[in-house]
Design brief:
Elements: H1 2-21, E1 26-34, H2 41-51, E2 61-67, E3 69-73, E4 78-82, E5 97-101, E6 105-112
Parallel strand pairs: 1-2
Antiparallel strand pairs: 1-6, 3-4, 3-5
Helix pairs in contact: 1-2
């Protein structure tokens, strides 16, 4: 389950940012996760709750904003929205798509005190 290593990395970012900003506690962590990032959101929530125990983010809410997947369609010569890799173009039905967005994950911001 790679969500555990993702949660550990997020905690590292949160702790570093909280120290830099002078937070004594983190109340909320906001993430952006692309629909095509291959992250199981519910598994990540579970892992996040486990790794933040005993940290300054213990009890912090985890807000996740899912960003859409996009791909360039060679048939339409246009960027289209996609929900998963390997699906056909929603406009023309073509199979030649190059993923162009929705693969990233980032810590958007923190709410601290």
């Amino acid at each position: 389950m790679h969500e555990m290593s993702i949660a550990e990395s997020v905690l590292g970012i949160v702790e570093e940012t909280a120290r830099r900003e002078g937070f004594s506690r983190v109340a909320e962590v906001r993430l952006e996760i692309g629909r095509l990032a291959a992250v199981e959101v519910e598994a990540l929530r579970f892992c996040f709750d486990a790794v933040v125990r005993g940290s300054l983010a213990e009890g912090a809410a985890l807000a996740i904003e899912e960003t859409p997947g996009t791909a360039w369609c060679f048939g339409c010569n246009d960027t289209v929205s996609v929900d998963s890799r390997g699906e056909p173009c929603p406009r023309c039905g073509g199979a030649r798509l190059q993923v162009s967005g929705g693969t990233d994950m980032r810590v958007k911001d923190l709410v601290g005190s």
